[in-house]
Amino acid sequence: MRNYLVTTLLFLNFNFYSQSFIFNQKLYKSIENKTIKFDEIDRRVEESFNNRDINAKGSGWKVYQRWKYMASFEVDENGYLPNSSAINKMKVEFKESPSLNDQVYREALNNLWTPVGPFTYTNKGSWSTGQGRVNCSVTDPTNENVIYIGAATGGVWKSTDGGLSWSPKTDFIDSIGISGLAIDPNNTNVIYAMTGDADGANVGFDGLYKSNDGGETWIKMGLTDINYGRTILIDPNNSNVVIVGTNSGVYRSQDGGLTFEQTSEEEIVFQIAFKPNDSNVVYASTSNGDDTFIYKSIDNGLTWELKKSFVGVKKMIMATTQADSNYLYLLGANTSGVLNGFKGVYLSVDSGETFTLKNDSTNVLESYQSYYDLGLAVSQTNKDLVYTGCLNLWGSNDGGKTFTSLNHWGSVLDQRYTHADIHDIRTVGSNVYVSSDGGIYISKDNGNTFVNRTFGLQISQFYKIDTSPSTNSRLVGGLQDNGGFISDNDTWVNFYGGDGMDAAINPVMPNLAYGFTQYGGNLYKYDFNLKAEGSFVVSHPWGEWVTPLEISSAGNIYGGWKEIEELENRSWQPRTNNSNGYNIRNMKVNPLYPNRLLYYRKSAANPNFDELIYTDENKDSSGNLVPRVINLPPAPGMYAKTLVAICFNPVNPNIFYIIYGSKVYKTADSGKTWVNITYNLPYSVSYCIAAQGNEKNSVYVGTNLGVYYFDEESNSWSLFSNGLPRVKITELKINTSENNLTASTYGRGIWRVALPSGTLALENHELDVNKGGVFPNPSNGVFRLNVNINEPLKMAIYDVSGKLVFEKSFKSLTSNDEINISDNPKGVYLLDIKSDQYTIRKKILIK
C-alpha cells in the first residue's frame, strides 16, 4: 500500500521542474524505501531553477515553495518524508487517541468546534481576489442545479441551488483533498471521489471513495495501492464498470469500485475519456516522464493501442464533445522553451486515429506551470467552440485555429474574471465551469460572463492567523493564493492579494492589522475603524516563504529575516546583529516583555540542525537586542533537527515550549533545562503549539489530523477535535478574555471552540468589562484601581503558582483606592475581585 501524505504527486513536480530528473515510480519507491532524503529532493528541485526567472508569474517557483514549506514539517528524525507505514501508523494512533476515561476529554465532547469562515467576503485591496482552491467540479446530468466540487485540501462540497449555497460532505474521511469526481449517470445519488491533491501535492492519496446517497455518507473502495489518481469514468451502459486514471496506469473495476485490475502500462495517466455515445471506446493520455502518448481502447478499457506519440511533450490533456462524437482535442505543454512551453492544440476528427496540429503559435499557457494547472474543454453543442486555460482563460470559435484571451488574473472587476491558475474547465449546454486557485466560477452564456460561486465554500488555506487579545470579533490571516483576510464581527475582507502569509493585530492599537506576502516581501495594513482598502506599508528583500511577523504588547512590529527587524516610520530597522546567513523561520514575542523574543533558524555550524535563540531585556551599546543561543535537548536522530513550533507561557516569561522533531518540550528556566512532555501524544505531523498559562499549564498542539490537549495535572494528551474536520491545523490562538481557542486550517478556513471548564487562564476575565481598571500596569507594586463598586466585595491577589499573596474585604471600591504589594518579587499576579453582582479578574505585573 503506497498512500502518501503530502508527498503525493511529488514526481510530477520533479519531472516538470527538471527534465532530467527521475521517472515517477522510481521516486515513489525511493520515498517508500527511504532511499532519498528531503534535503536531496530540495537540492535537486532548486537546481532545476538555476536558469529560470523565479520571479516570473507562473514560473513554478511559488508552487514548489508551498509544497516545500508544508513538507518540511513532515521530515522524520533521519531526514525522510513519511512512507505508507508511517502514515498508516498516524491514522491508527489517531483513531485510538485517548480516551473516554479522561475528564478533560469527556468535557471536550461538549466543546464543539464551530466554523468561523470565511464563507463570503468583500474585496478591499486585492489584485487577485479569491477564497480557496478548487481542483474539479461535476454537475448532476439530470439537474444542473446540483453541483459537486472537489477542493484541494477542503474536501467534497455539494450545492443544490446552482452554487448559491454549499455544504461540506467529506470532513471526516482520512484525506479531504480531492482530485477527481464522477456521478453515475444511471443513479445520480452515486458519487465517486478521488482523494489527494494531484495538482499541488498538498495532501496525500487515501483511495477512492463512493457515496450511494448523494454525498451524505462515504465508503472507502478499492484502489488503495497507488500514489494518486485524477479522472474517474462510470460506464453509462453498466454502472458497475468504473475506470480510473492514476499515476501508475489505467485501472478498471467491474464491481462498482470494490476491486480494480490494472489494464495499461505503468505510466502517468493525465486523463481518460469515453467517446461520446460509445463507452466501448476509451481514450487515455499518458506520460513516461519525458514523452506523452495517446492510447485508445475499443473494448471498454480492457486493452489499449498506442495511437500517437509526442516526443519531448511533458503533459497532454484531452476533451471530447457531444456535438461530434468523432472529435478529440488535445493540448500539449512543457514547462520550458518558447511560448512558456506551449506545444500545440491538436484535433482528431476520426476518434483518435489521426491528429492534425491546429495551433502552436498562440501562448495560451502564459506561464511555465502547466504541470500544476491546465484545463481544456469543448462546448457540447458547438464542436468548434474550445476553451483552455493555465494562467487565464482563452477561447476559440474555429476549432482551435485561433485563440482569444477571455480574461486576465489581475482584472478583478472584469465580468469574465476567474482568478489565476485554472485547474479544470467543463461545459454543460451553454454553461462553462472553471475551477481555479480562487474558487469555482460559472458562466451561463458560453463564457461571455462569469459569476463567482465560491461564496459559501469554507475552503481557504491559511498559513497563519492572529486574533485580537480583547475580543473574538477581530481576526487577521494569510491565505495561500488569495492574500490577506480580516474578519470584523464575522464580516470578512480581502485586503491584499498574492499569497498571504503571517499576520498580526496590534494590541496597543487594535484597530490596525498587518499581513505579509510571500517571503515577507511586502507588508500591508488594514484599519478596522476606517474600513477602507488595505494599504501597502513597506517592502523588504526576501526571507523565508512564511516570514514571521510579531507585534509586542508595547506595539513593536517585528519581522524576522536574517536579523530581527522593527518597523519604524515605514522602514525596517535591525534590532539584532547576529546573522549567520540563514533566514529566521519562526519567531514569537513574549506577551509580557516586548524585548523578549524567541526564534529559530538553521545552525551555521551544522545546517542539519536548527538553533534556538532568545533575547531578553539586555541591549548592546548600539541599542540592539542581545541574542543568546539556547541549548536544545539531545536530538534523537541526525535529522531531528527541525524545530517545528515555539510558544511562550503567557503569564510566566521563563516558561516556553518547543516542538522539536516529533517531540514536545518545556523549559521553566528560559532554556537552561528541558523536560520532554510528549508522553502519550500520538505520532503525527505537528504544525503549531499554544500555551494557556493557567493553573494546569495547559498546552494545545495542532497536527495534520486535529488538535491535542495537555495539562500538567494529568501529564497526558487528549484529542480535542470534536466537530473539527480532519485537516492540517496551521495556527492556534487562545483568547483568554472569552476563554476560547481559534484554529486556522490549511483547507477548511477558521474554526473556534470554547476551552474546557477548569482551564481558565491567569488572564483578564471580566463579567463586566466596564467595572475593572488597574493602573499603572506594569508598576513597582503599587496599583490604583479604576473601579466603582457600591457593595461589599472581597479582593484577592495570587502569584502564578496560585499562592495567595494579598487578601482584603471592602465595603465598596472607588477609583481612588490603592493597593500596595511591592514587598512581593517581580512577576505576574492575578487580581480577583468578587461581589454579588461583579466578578473581575485581571493580570497585573510587578516590574
TrEMBL record:
Keyword match Signal: yes
Matches recorded under Gene3D superfamilies: YVTN repeat-like/Quinoprotein amine dehydrogenase (2.130.10.10)
Keyword terms of this UniProt record: Repeat, Signal
SUPFAM superfamilies hit by this protein: Oligoxyloglucan reducing end-specific cellobiohydrolase
Sortilin N-terminal domain residues: 250-365
BP GO terms, sorted: xyloglucan metabolic process
Residue ranges constituting the Secretion system C-terminal sorting domain according to the UniProt record: 774-846
PANTHER family: EXO-ALPHA-SIALIDASE, XYLOGLUCANASE (EUROFUNG)
UniProt protein name: T9SS C-terminal target domain-containing protein
Higher taxonomy: Bacteria, Pseudomonadati, Bacteroidota, Flavobacteriia, Flavobacteriales
